[in-house]
Amino acid sequence: MRNTSRRKRVIGVVSSDKMDKTIIVKVERQRRHPRYGKYVKNVTAYRTHDEGNKAKVGDTVEIMETRPLSKTKRWRLVRVLEETA
């Protein structure tokens, strides 16, 4: 088995599943503004490979960094943590 411990893993919410074997996962981070001290939300959208088309819009998922799979896909689905009804 490959050593995957050094690869980044993040948790986010699926915002689109319209493509075949690809989902868009939005990951929300909060960081403190360096000068003003206020916490600012940052949202990043990751194109993610979903081999079995398991994830649906609204699901909470865990994704992992991987080798480039296409022009924009650099992440793959590890597991669906929470499904929406």
From TrEMBL:
Keywords: Ribonucleoprotein, Ribosomal protein, RNA-binding, rRNA-binding. One of its GO terms (cellular component) is cytosolic small ribosomal subunit. The keyword RNA-binding applies. One of its GO terms (molecular function) is structural constituent of ribosome. InterPro entries: NA-bd_OB-fold, Ribosomal_uS17, Ribosomal_uS17_bact/chlr, Ribosomal_uS17_CS. It comes from the Bacteria. The keyword Transmembrane helix does not apply. GO terms for biological process: translation. Belongs to the universal ribosomal protein uS17 family. One of the primary rRNA binding proteins, it binds specifically to the 5'-end of 16S ribosomal RNA. Part of the 30S ribosomal subunit. NCBIfam families: PRK05610.1, uS17_bact. This is Small ribosomal subunit protein uS17. The lineage of its organism: Bacteria, Pseudomonadati, Planctomycetota, Planctomycetia, Planctomycetales. The gene is rpsQ.
